[in-house]
Amino acid sequence: MPLTAPLSQVMLPGQHAAPEGPVDLQAMYVMHHAFRRDLHRFRAVADRVPATDRQQWRRLQRRWHFFATALHHHHAAEDAGLWPLLLSRIADSPDSRAVDVLRAMAAEHAQIDPLLAECADGFASLATDGTPEARRALQESLEHAWEVLDGHLGHEEREAMALLQRHLDESDWRRLEREHFRPAYTPREMWTVIPWSQEGLPAEVGRRVRAAGGPAVRALWWLSRRSFARNEQAAFGTARDVTAPLAAERDPRHPTSTRQRRTTVVELTRSIDVAVGPDELFAYVSDFNRAHEWRTEVIESTMEPPGSMQAGSLLREVAVVAGRRLVTYTIVDIFEPPRRFTFEHRTGPLPVSGEYVVEAPHASATQDEATLHYTLRIHLTGGQRLLAPLLTMTAPRTVQTSLRTLANVLEAGRAR
């Protein structure tokens, strides 16, 4: 790849990062800005529209459909074009972390789709038979969607875009735009997509976007912008003007810092003595392919890359909780065999982190005695904080049941 001087990248309100490199990613970050802006407005308007105003909820239902469709098209283009191209470029790279990042991108997309459908159901419910309960449920769904989507976009901006800048050049990006991103939208959709993508941008960035798009984009924007603005006003009302909170979601000077919102952390540590040696115990709990054997809520568990766990391993689990099938992807942060590893969820219903620590229970312990200490932290923000009392009651029981099952499985195997 030819060496090219790094370009100055745009940094928009709410954006986490803008890695330097040879590719001008203005179009990517403009789309991210539009997704964040829309979801911020939906959260704001859901707090203001009465549950009984069915006409307004129908307007919002239609507007949500456009937002979800645009987001789906964007992710589909990345899944079909961008991630496969990057994977092909790093195929011979010793950096296994890069592969994990790209696999996590597609996994996070899969996690977002059900959240969009959940919100769509909420708008549909309020558009037909609005109740205060349905409105509260939608508010919680929108809050959850924001947490997951903003987390994904930030992960993409920090890590995936850095990989793009290292392994692609401007000609690669132009081909991706031509073959995957532009064809994702029909000509009819472009009538709305062009003014939608530029709504709320700083004036100078908007001018650069139109200049880069050429005469056709400038003409479509000029012809469609007023009707788009009227429709936005009808859907969001005064919530359309609430743009300052989006800019304040994150300090651009600290691109990886999170929003300053109240967070409740449900933390618990449970321990269990097991009649096997420390090395055997650690080998079992770090073999995530076997997690479904003892984690009571987990029905499937796999680990990539194959083989032994390592820092950067990507863990996939499928759990059934309250009758719902939930898929979670987790990254191993610290791996210190044969005693400790830490983990953090990258996708899932709740932000979770924790660690496993294996040790001999006391100085005089035999080779067939070990203790497992398991720590779990659930980070709750926004509407999720309402779940804290429930999780405080249920999580310890679930963890303790799983640990007892683990001890029984290992000791039964030793007995045989």
UniProtKB/TrEMBL annotation:
<dbReference type="InterPro" id="IPR019587">
    <property type="entry name" value="Polyketide_cyclase/dehydratase"/>
</dbReference>
<dbReference type="InterPro" id="IPR012312">
    <property type="entry name" value="Hemerythrin-like"/>
</dbReference>
<protein>
    <submittedName>
        <fullName>Hemerythrin domain-containing protein</fullName>
    </submittedName>
</protein>
<feature type="domain" description="Hemerythrin-like">
    <location>
        <begin position="26"/>
        <end position="163"/>
    </location>
</feature>
<dbReference type="Pfam" id="PF10604">
    <property type="entry name" value="Polyketide_cyc2"/>
</dbReference>
<dbReference type="Pfam" id="PF01814">
    <property type="entry name" value="Hemerythrin"/>
</dbReference>
<dbReference type="InterPro" id="IPR023393">
    <property type="entry name" value="START-like_dom_sf"/>
</dbReference>
